[in-house]
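Weekend entry, working from home. Most of the wet-lab plans are on hold until the incubator is repaired, so I used the time to fold the two sequences that have been sitting in the queue since the last round of cloning. Logging both here for the record. First:
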Amino acid sequence: MAQGHKWKESVLDFLLLQSHDLQAQFHYTAQLLDRIEQQFGPDNIIVFNFHNKTWSSPAEAVFCHGSLNTVHTCHATRNESAHANRAKSLAYEDLVFAAANASLIKINTDEEMKHIANAAQSYQEKTLNKTSNDFPKICLSPEDKKFLLEKSLELERRVYPETFSLMEIDTRLDFEAASQTSLCKIDADGTLLNDEWIQFFQRHSST
């Protein structure tokens, strides 16, 4: 099974695995901005705030910026953003991966992973009439949550000094919402204590 490694990682997986490097990464971004400003001058640098709710996507923020003469690209980007796919939950693949580690099922290829993950999604959403949000979750610890928020605010203060005071409340609210949703992942091991999911994987162990 891909040598026991997951095919994809959630945001929380990344944060937990890279936690020892996060301090350096935050400093790197600020230092990089300093070097670019020294090279080209601050008046020649545009920093885009992708959290600005004025834009529907990062691409729209870039190509529809008033200082750039990219009218046609802006129009095309807005049309594409309107039809963009929604983010895909990794919960079902995480669940299948955990089931394989628990020897409830055997997965050898990406195609097998996708097949069983799709079956798990169908079971959760159609048979059980639930969504991936109904799974028990693992979220950031209070210490990690505090660290990430403080560093996020510190970086925004550095990058957007003129508007930071107007952004801070929204940043805190957005972070609080994310800390309960996108910065969490399924508690796959806990989910597999449920008899209905044990039975689900037993039924699919030979498919």
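Second, folded right after the first finished:
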Amino acid sequence: MTAPAGPPGGPWLGAAVLCERVIVDGDALSAVHILEQITAAGPRPVELTMLMLIVRGAARGPIVAQIVARSPDGELVAALEVIADLPETPDGCGRVVVPIRLDVVRDGVYWFDVGVGDAIATRVPLRVVTAR
């Protein structure tokens, strides 16, 4: 793979993880309990956090990021949009912490489409198992 010369396009998604919470301590950032699967007590809302790291690249101005969550059968269960202010340097990385209230409707894999700018940058799965 050949790296491009000069600053890349952008913006770029450096990371997107679902977790219980995020701790910010000065310049340090910690995602607590990164989630791939959760057990929910029946159909009810579940509180999660998504941590996104967005790299500016050659993009200018505030960046719009979107999160769209769908249930296992494709039903829209959450949609959020946030504005990310990024550092001015091409390698500047903005930290975006987004609380999410997910309406759990059934067992299965919930997909979170994460968009940066005008494009879907990644999809993050979360398996939900309801307690019996």
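Plan for Monday: verify the second prediction. Strands lie at 12-25, 28-34, 37-40, 45-55, 63-70, 76-84, 93-103, 108-116, 119-130.
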